[in-house]
Structures are given as C-alpha cells and as structure tokens.
Design goal:
The complex is a heterodimer of chains A (521) and B (290).
Chain A (H helix, E strand, L loop, with lengths): L3 E5 L3 H9 L9 E7 L2 E7 L1 H5 L8 H7 L4 E4 L2 H18 L3 E5 L3 E5 L18 H18 L5 E5 L2 H10 L4 E3 L6 H5 L11 H9 L5 H4 L4 H8 L2 H9 L16 E11 L2 H22 L1 E12 L4 E12 L2 H11 L9 E13 L19 H11 L4 E6 L9 E5 L24 E8 L1 E4 L6 E6 L2 E15 L11 E10 L4 E9 L5 E7 L2
Parallel strand pairs in A: 2-4, 7-8
Antiparallel strand pairs in A: 1-6, 1-7, 2-3, 5-6, 9-12, 10-11, 10-12, 13-14, 15-21, 16-17, 17-18, 18-19, 19-20, 20-21
Helix pairs in contact in A: 6-11, 12-13, 13-14
Chain B lengths: L1 H7 L4 H18 L8 E2 L4 H6 L5 E2 L3 E5 L6 H11 L3 H6 L9 H12 L5 E5 L7 H5 L7 E5 L3 H12 L6 E6 L4 H14 L2 E6 L14 E8 L21 E9 L5 E6 L8 E6 L7 H6 L1
The chains are: A alpha+beta (521), B alpha/beta (290).
Chain lengths: 521, 290
C-alpha cells in the first residue's frame, strides 16, 4: 500500500511574501489583493488577519475597515507557484524521490519505502516503520516551521486521504498507520475534503450529505446519475480502493538525463545499457556545474503509464559514470518492468560541489589516503546504509556505552589533538563482549575477594589468576535508577588459560549478583 | 643454474640448495603471477624462521581458527575415544564468543602492523572494538560491514578484495568451502590485498580443504604467574600477559608446527617463549586435518 504525505500550507502566499520582501512590518497583519475589473478583492490573508474575520473574496476596502493597520500587497500567484516548486525540489532532495506540488498551497510526497530511513538506527532487527513515519513527519514539520511556514501535515495510505486529513482534521499533524481504519478516520470529515468542485459539494450538502461518512455505503446509482462518476471516484481514491498515480515533479533545474525507447524495454540488461548511457550524459551536466551527485533516482515509465523508481545514495559526491552506473544497475533487479519500459529518466536530486582536489604528497608530510568511497557505496547499496560504519569512543565507563558508530567516511580526528580516549587507557577490555551479561554462579573465598571458581553453562572454571576489581558506577545523569548501581569487574584466568571478564553487580539493597560479560582469550 | 650451484658447493650442501630452489620455483607457480610477494614478518624469530617467506605472505588468503582452550591432550584423547572421528571432535569447540577471542586479538595484532585501511566483514554482533585498539589497531583504520547472512560476508569480502586501496579484508565466517576460498584467494592475488578469514570452530565443521595459503589456530594457554621483582620464587597476585598456543595447521612449503607465544602487546607484536616441534606435544591430528 502506498504511503503519502500531504503538506498543507494554509498561509503560504502571505508567508512567502513576508520571507521574500524586506520592507514589511513584522507585526502588522497582511493581506494580498487582486484586481477583478474595477474591484480590488482580498486573495489571501495571514493568520492574524484571519483571526480578525478577514476572508479571501472580501473587498479590500472592507478589509481595511475591519482591521486598521492592515498591510496590503499585490497577490502574485506565479511567484507562489514558483516558490512551491522550489519547496517541492527541497523535499525531493530530503524526503522522497516522488514529490508533486498541489497548487496553490500544498505538496504531496510519496514516502512509500522511504520512512525506515528515519527510524532510529539501533541496528535492531525490527525496524519500526511507525517510528520512522513519526520521525519523518516531525522532521518535516520542524524544518518547515524553521523556514517560517505554517504547515499542517497528514500521512495516510492514499493521496485523497492525506489531502483531506491535512486540511480538515483537527490536529496539525495526523498519521493514519497502515493498520488503522482509513474509513473511520475519514468519515467525520466534511464532504469538501473530497476534492470535488464547489458546485458539487454545495449540491451534496443541500441533499443532506454533509460528511464523508454519509456517502459511505449509500446506493451509488442515483448520486452517480445526478453528479457523474466524480463523487465516488474521489471517495474510492480517498479510501485507497481505486488507484491514483502521483505524477512526480521533475523541476527544470534538476540535474537529469532522459531516454525514450522506440520499442519498450523488458529485460534488465536492456535497462542496464540505458543506465550506462544516461550516466555518461548526466556526468557531462554535473561536470559543467562542477558538482557531484550524492543521490541518484532512476524513474522509469512503463507502457501503462505507471512509474517505478530506483534510488541509490553515495557517501561522497561523485561524477564517475562507471561507478554511478554500477550502483544503479545493482538495484535494477528489484525493479518490475511490467509490460515494458518506455522512458527512463536519471536524476540527481542531491548534488554537492565537487572540485578538483589537491593530491596529498609526502611534501606536506601527509600520505595520500586511499579513496574508499566507491567501495563504501557499493557495500552500503548491498547491505544497507547503516551497516557500513566505523566505531569511535564515547566517554563512558560502561563498556556497552563506550562505543558508537560513525559513518564509514566520517572525517577522522586529527592525530595531533588529544582525543577523548577511554579506549586506550590501560584498563583491560575484552575482545568479545556479550550483548547481555550472563548470570554465573561464583564461589569466592571472602565476599570482597576475586572469585575462586565460577560455573557457566554447567561447566566449572577454577580460577588460577585474577585481577580486579575495576569499579564503575552507574551514570545517574542518564537514568535515575542508576544512582545506586555499581559494577566491580574482574579479569580472571582459568586453569586452561582462558580469560574471562566477570563482574559483581551491586544495585541498592538487592543481593549482589555475578555476571559474565566478555572474553579476553 | 643448478649446475652452477653444484660447482660452487660440492658435496651434501648442493642437494639442499637444489631443493630450496625447486621449492621456490614451485611456490612461485602456485602463487600465480607474484613470485616475490611481500610478507609480513611476525617479528618473532621462531615463527618467522619456520615460514617459507619469512612471514605471512601478503596478497593471499589466510585462515585463522579459534578453538576452545581446553588442554590439548585431554581433548585429543577424549575426542578419539568418544567419536573415533578424531579430527572433527578435536577441532570443534562450542563455536561461541569464548572460542574466538584469542584469534581476534592475534589478527588485530597482525593488522596493526600493516598500514592502510581494513575492511572487517562480520555477522555476529559480539566484537568489542576497543580491544582492537589495545592491540595497536587504530580504530579509525577499520571499516566494518555488517551483514545479516553469512553468504553476504563472503560477498562483501570479495568486493573489498577488489579494492586496491585496502590493506586487508577480514571476514568472520563459520565455514569456508573450497570454492569460496578459491574465489577469495584469486581476488586477493589480483589486487594484492591480504584476506583473513576468522573462523569460529563448529562441531560439525571438520577441516575442509581450502585454497588458503596458511591455516592457523589460536587458543589460550595458561599464563605464567607474576613474579615479584625482589624474590623470583614468590609469585604475586594479579594477572600478567596472556599466553597463546599458536598452531600452524597448514602452510604451503612448511610443516605444521605449534608455538607457545605471549599475547600481542600494544603494537601487535607477539612474544615467543618456546617453540614446540614434533615432540610429544605436537599436533599430529592437525596434520591429518590439514
């Protein structure tokens, strides 16, 4: 099922005006006017003006009477459309490869299959999709707010539902999970939410159909006869019962290359050849701009007008055609060619400047670092972005917390600067660490002595040599329960020479317990 | 050439020289296009002297096995008595984290003395990277590739071996078949990147034949008690440098051998305290396995 975000920007025209012009008084309410014949009418108002009862369609003179101190400006619908396209292009680079502006004041994002990128990178097995969707919405809302745009967002299973919920549901941010009942969410909304013509909605209201719920389950024939197929088509689209394509935006400034075929292409090999040609074309465009691509989207249009997309990311900006082609081609196996592909378009929605680099030389005392970005890209494409990483120290005494993952090509700390190193201290750290410490039975000579014997998995290990304790305390600033927590770590060696890392846990008044946490050798 | 040597060194010496020359030539044929591949010396005399190239050949595949630390004699006799199929039972440990810790550090010590980035492909999540830093391997040099399936580990390794910028590629696998090892060996030869497979011993996995240049097994051995500096007779409490039993199970151009070494120091160097040759303690079964 598709997942669509609808962004509704109720005050887009006025807010865009405020952002682009410098001479507007910031506190004064703002309205935009347009001329129809001799009349000057209000076309858009901002939040303050709306609160004072001003509405689009009102005469400008009446608006000024109602709200003294109102600033008036000319309504510029073309500039608005351009602004909306720019905003869509920004969403394209950040959230989803398929974005469509829905003028005058909205955007639609097809986020199917993109949301997991926003889930916390815990490396856990169950990538929580709900969490990813929530994070995506929160991120989008926060970034729009920082730009000074009032936005209302909705994420649902169809374009119609997302559109309706963004505009007519009460909270600013609505999300209908895949498992939730779309019908129940849409039923209380007014019929205006269905994207019908104003005349149709008015006529429906006159007949007593006020909410979407009223239309669900009624006999369709009489209504279709009177209003045409539109009403139930829109209803079915909103409920996700009937398909509605999202035509992706290809902004004119987007770096892209396209190819149309005389005969539809069905095989992956044919597509791969096309991709190779497109990559060469795209490289020429990137070269002219001195940019490198960080992401590539391959849009394919099939014979039946449906579209498919393959998206790859690069760790570093690149404009090497062979590398780009190889990355895209590796992903082609997952693409359904359907009846055949008619058109392909390769776009680079995210580009970064890529200038010639100074080759490090021995003269500067710095040897040339091998470029690993192609390798990292290939592995990341195959295994997933979060699976290629380096590890870096974290200042924490708790072994579980002392490691964090950083991007494989993250800048390396300069060796001259002292590092917050708690790895290279002389405390012993095991080569293999158990994710969850395992309880063991321990016999010690005296309570504070290192253990003399421990039993793990039914085997007795008689301890010949031991070192410890290394005491670490709970980090009370992380979790309140840790204030009473402490661990005493012992490095012990059994008769066979095997070395273990044991600790004794003290937690408040509970009896001490022993755990095995890792292996040295 | 042989004749010239004959003239110079008449007598019994020339026979050894001819053999050495022939060994070198055959070795060169086996290694493909690189007859004089560089080698990484262990900087432990006993081991380096035993290896034909004076160290680990670079640009080749090496297997490093973990193994349980149970004393070898007891395990060997138990193995033969219980199963009869000696090789399998003896090599097998639990295949858990405890069996591979020493091998991990042994490998980290080798990598520490190479220069350049390292790709470490792994499936299990129990590697604790700070310990690698303690063996001298700079954490910034290691890129980890984490996979869900073991077959992806081998694929990722091969991908890395085709990248000449890397110093070495490590893969943690449970078993390495002949085909997979051949592919890795060829990839390692073609770009000169050294490949290491870190194998967790498994009861089911016998010693399969592979195309690896060497096969090592690293297990822990009882360490020596710490002695106080004033009187050598009285041990003090505490734990000293660990000791390992390093078995060279298979090597082209050299016999299997066992060494008792001290664990890596902060720069990845081993200390060899004793060399076990084919005495009572030597791994006879290893040879049959290899």
């Amino acid at each position: 099922m598709a997942r669509v975000v609808s962004v509704y920007l109720p005050f887009f025209a006025t807010e865009r005006m405020r952002l682009t012009s410098t001479d507007l008084p910031p506190e004064a309410p703002l309205a935009l006017t347009t001329r129809i014949g001799a009349q000057r009418l209000v076309a858009a108002v901002d939040a303050t003006a709306l609160a004072h009862g001003l509405k689009p369609g009102m005469a400008a003179t009446q608006a000024q009477l109602l709200l003294p101190g109102l600033t008036l400006r000319d309504y510029a619908p073309r500039a608005d459309a351009h602004g909306l396209a720019k905003l869509a292009a920004w969403c394209l680079a950040r959230y989803s490869p398929v974005v469509m502006p829905s003028p005058p004041d909205g955007l639609l994002l097809d986020v199917t299959g993109c949301t997991h990128l926003f889930a916390a990178r815990t490396g856990g097995q169950s990538r929580n999709l709900d969490e990813g969707e929530d994070n995506l919405l929160a991120d989008l809302a926060a970034r729009l707010a920082r730009r000074g745009l009032t936005a209302r967002l909705a994420l649902a299973g169809s374009i119609g539902a997302a559109h309706a919920l963004a505009r007519f549901a009460a909270p600013d941010c609505t999300r209908i999970a895949e498992t939730q009942n779309l019908k129940g969410a849409l039923a209380p909304l007014p019929v205006e939410a269905l994207r019908l013509s104003p005349e149709t909605t008015q006529a429906l209201r006159r007949l007593g159909f006020e909410r979407i719920g009223d239309l669900i389950g009624v006999k369709r024939a009489p209504i279709t006869r009177r209003f045409g197929h539109d009403v139930f088509l829109r209803l079915d689209q909103a409920l996700g019962l009937s398909r509605e394509p999202l035509v992706p935006l290809i902004p004119s400034e987007l770096v892209s290359a396209k190819l149309s075929f005389v005969e539809p292409v069905i095989t992956a090999e044919g597509l791969a050849q096309a991709v190779e040609r497109l990559c060469v074309d795209l490289t020429a465009v990137l070269e002219a701009r001195q940019h490198g691509a960080r992401r590539l989207d391959l849009h394919v249009t099939r014979l039946d007008r449906s579209t498919g997309i393959v998206s790859v990311r690069m760790a570093k900006p690149s404009r090497a055609p062979e590398h780009m082609a190889r990355l895209v081609c590796e992903k082609l196996a997952g693409l359904d060619c359907g009846l055949g592909v008619e058109k392909v378009l390769l776009a680079a929605p995210l580009t970064r400047p890529l200038l010639p680099e100074q080759i490090a030389s021995e003269l500067y005392g710095r040897p040339q670092e091998p470029d690993l970005s192609t390798l990292v890209d290939r592995l990341a494409n195959r295994l997933g972005a979060g699976r290629i990483y380096r590890t870096a120290p974290v200042e924490s005494d708790w072994p579980e917390r002392s490691v964090r993952r950083v991007a494989a090509l993250a800048p390396k700390p300069r060796t001259e600067t002292p590092r917050p190193e708690n790895w290279l201290r002389d405390w012993p750290r095991p080569a293999r660490l158990l994710a969850d410490p395992m309880p063991v039975e321990v016999i010690a000579l005296l309570p504070d002595y290192p253990p003399a014997l421990f039993i793990w998995q039914g085997r007795r290990h008689r301890i010949c040599r031991a070192d410890g304790p290394e005491r670490i305390f709970g980090e009370w600033w992380r979790a309140p329960g840790e204030i009473a927590l402490a661990r005493d770590y012992f490095q012990v060696e059994d008769e066979a020479g095997q070395r273990f890392w044991l600790f004794r846990e003290e937690a408040g008044n509970r009896p001490q317990r022993w755990y095995l946490h890792g292996f040295f050798a | 050439m042989v004749g010239a040597q004959h003239d110079k060194e008449p007598g019994a010496g020339w026979r050894a020289a001819v053999l050495k020359e022939l060994r070198r030539e055959v070795g060169a044929l086996e290694a493909g296009a690189r007859p004089d591949a560089p080698a990484l010396a262990f900087e432990a005399e006993a081991i380096d002297a035993h290896l034909p190239e004076g160290g680990l050949r670079l640009g080749a595949l090496h297997e490093i096995w973990g193994g349980s630390a149970t004393p070898i004699d007891r395990q060997a006799t138990e193995g033969t008595q219980k199963t009869g199929a000696a090789g399998i039972e003896k090599i097998g440990g639990n295949g858990g984290a405890e069996d591979i810790a020493a091998a991990t550090l042994f490998l980290a010590g080798l990598l520490a003395r190479l220069s350049g980035p390292v790709l470490w492909c792994l499936k299990a999540r129990d590697l604790f990277t700070p310990s690698l830093a303690a063996a001298g391997l700079d954490p910034d040099r290691v890129i980890y590739a984490e996979t869900w399936h073991e077959r992806d580990v081998l694929a990722a390794m091969e991908e890395g071996l085709h990248h000449p910028g890397l110093a070495a590629v490590v893969g943690e696998v449970a078993r390495l078949g002949l085909t997979a090892s051949r592919r890795l060996q060829l990839a390692a030869e073609s770009e000169g990147v050294t490949a290491f497979t870190l194998l967790r011993p498994h009861r089911q996995t016998g010693a399969e034949p592979t195309a690896a240049a060497t096969r090592w097994r690293i297990r822990s051995a009882p360490s020596l008690p710490l002695m106080s500096s004033s009187s050598a007779a009285h041990p003090v409490a505490g734990i000293g440098r660990g000791r390992w039993r390093v078995d060279l199970m298979r090597c082209r151009g050299a016999d299997p051998a066992s060494f008792i070494t001290e664990a890596c120091d902060g720069t990845g160097r081993l200390g060899v305290s004793a060399l076990l040759r084919d005495g009572a303690d030597a791994p006879h079964l290893d040879r049959s396995a290899a």
